[in-house]
Write a structure and sequence with these properties.
This protein is of the alpha/beta class. It has helices at residues 35-41, 76-79, 129-141, 160-170, 183-192, 212-221, 243-247, 266-276, 279-284, 294-302, and strands at 2-7, 10-15, 24-32, 53-57, 63-66, 105-108, 113-115, 149-153, 175-179, 202-207, 222-230, 251-254, 260-261, 264-265, 285-290, 309-313. The chain folds into 2 domains: 2-130 and 259-313, Quinone Oxidoreductase, Chain A, domain 1; 132-254, NAD(P)-binding Rossmann-like Domain (Rossmann fold). The chain is built from 10 helices and 16 strands.
Length: 314
Amino acid sequence: MRGVRRTENGIEVVDLPRPEADGVRIKVQSIGICQTDLNLTAMGPLQFTLGHEFAGVLDDGTPVGVQPTVPCGQCELCRNGDSVWCVEGYSRLIGIGQDGGMADEVIVPASSIVPLPRGLDATNGANLIEPLAIHLHTLDLARATGRTRILVVGANQSGFGVIAVAAALARGGEHVDFEGDRAFQREAAARLGAGVEPSGQYDLVIEADGSEESIHKAAEWARPGGTLALVAGYYTPKTWNFTTAFVKELTVVFGAFYGHSATGRDVDAAATLLGRNPRIAEIVNTHRFPLDAAAEAFEFARSDSESLKVVIEP
């Protein structure tokens, strides 16, 4: 079986034994390269197969998505239903602490399976369930409502900010704008329905780029008493002059995971949204590479190319 790992030689497709463990076997059909993947692989060799944004089919051909969490089930947080915060941390995340879906096959717990609604394809769309669920979760944390003016600042190298636009529009923000440095990012946001000429101040500003410049900018756009949501993934120390946030008395919210609410799991809500609006995947999934070209796919995603989500297909 083929799998993609970060070795001493960089990104390589290696031969791996077919997985044999308790759980549900998935024949993988699509995997998105995430900003987290780019950050992880820049740190050096890793001992696991990459890939946490993936979808595929079960042995009987049923298409499914995946919530990439394997909670211990024993700690207090897991017992209380907050398994994404399991005390064993990142070691319990598929593709981040243990073997992921950037391979021909993977075995996941039955609890990780996300049923796909009609209209959502495992080859084009279901790979976006995980990042979209993060944004839906963050909007809940920020208590966004239909009366909320929302600005998304930055798209980063994997189109994460454009996915945030889709989530904000779906949650019925009163007005949703996007600010990005590059024309193709603004065009993608506009195709989803966002404004791309920000003005005034905003009730909620979502920082989706991860750079220090973007964090500063996001705080400037927020109205006094507003909310700043930091979701980009901050894997290296950031220097942030928080005077602006202080004098505006901003509420700062971090969004990193997903969970559940009275209405169900965030990943299921994300799947429903992607099935209802296939244009999200059409706009965000911009480039595709075969699994054997994984090294080229990572190089392309990391480059200055005009790409949003780069997808690998076994």
